[in-house]
């Protein structure tokens, strides 16, 4: 595992625990020689984790649409900053550059990115690990809801287990690193999946 894509808020959130978790995740990744791929911003939790990775001597790669760069929220102190056309190109490049994904606390954009890569895994478009950094129980409601989705038979149990979760950054990074894809049926065969991407 060379790089992990981290989805997180462009806000710092209500609790200082979120920024502290971002710094701890940065340290866990740098200590394990894992680079950061993220949305390229210099604000909120995005800025916190990127700043800390760079401060610790790690690799931080940002991917940001031109429209957001024009609003001066792009981080100019990264290892690399890719400026792309739109959000679709941004998400595709972030996924391509990464060997796994972690969603930290964040808003609707974070959830949208998380569920897109979760759906891609369910479909068989990738077999990279996906984790929730469940700081202060932030994702407890989501985890409970996904169990409800399983109970109501809209999601198979083995597909739900594709989403790892842990409150500790170091433990979550270790779980992503040791992840072994399960040999269960995907919704698309590899040939069909390749045609979609």
TrEMBL record:
Coiled coil: none annotated. One of its GO terms (cellular component) is cytosol. Keywords: Cytokinin biosynthesis, DNA-binding, Hydrolase. Its EC number is 3.2.2.n1. It comes from the Bacteria. GO terms for biological process: cytokinin biosynthetic process. This is Cytokinin riboside 5'-monophosphate phosphoribohydrolase. InterPro entries: LOG, LOG_fam. It catalyses: AMP + H2O = D-ribose 5-phosphate + adenine. Belongs to the LOG family. It is an enzyme of class 3 (hydrolase). GO terms for molecular function: AMP nucleosidase activity; DNA binding.
């Amino acid at each position: 595992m060379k790089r992990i894509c981290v989805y997180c808020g462009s806000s710092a959130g209500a609790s200082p625990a979120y920024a502290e978790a971002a710094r701890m995740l940065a340290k866990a990744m740098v200590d394990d020689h894992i680079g950061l791929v993220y949305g390229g911003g210099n604000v909120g939790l995005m800025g916190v984790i990127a700043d800390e990775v760079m401060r610790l001597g790690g690799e931080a790669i940002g991917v940001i649409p031109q429209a957001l760069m024009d609003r001066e929220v792009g981080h100019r102190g990264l290892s690399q900053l890719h400026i792309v056309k739109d959000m679709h190109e941004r998400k595709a490049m972030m996924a391509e550059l990464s060997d796994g994904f972690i969603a930290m606390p964040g808003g609707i954009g974070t959830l949208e990115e998380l569920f897109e890569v979760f759906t891609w895994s369910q479909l068989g478009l990738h077999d990279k690990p996906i984790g929730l950094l469940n700081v202060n129980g932030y994702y407890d409601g989501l985890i409970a809801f996904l169990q409800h989705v399983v109970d109501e038979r809209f999601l198979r149990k083995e597909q739900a287990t594709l989403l790892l979760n842990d409150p500790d950054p170091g433990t979550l990074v270790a779980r992503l690193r040791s992840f072994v894809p399960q040999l269960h049926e995907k919704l698309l065969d590899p040939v069909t999946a390749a045609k979609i991407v």
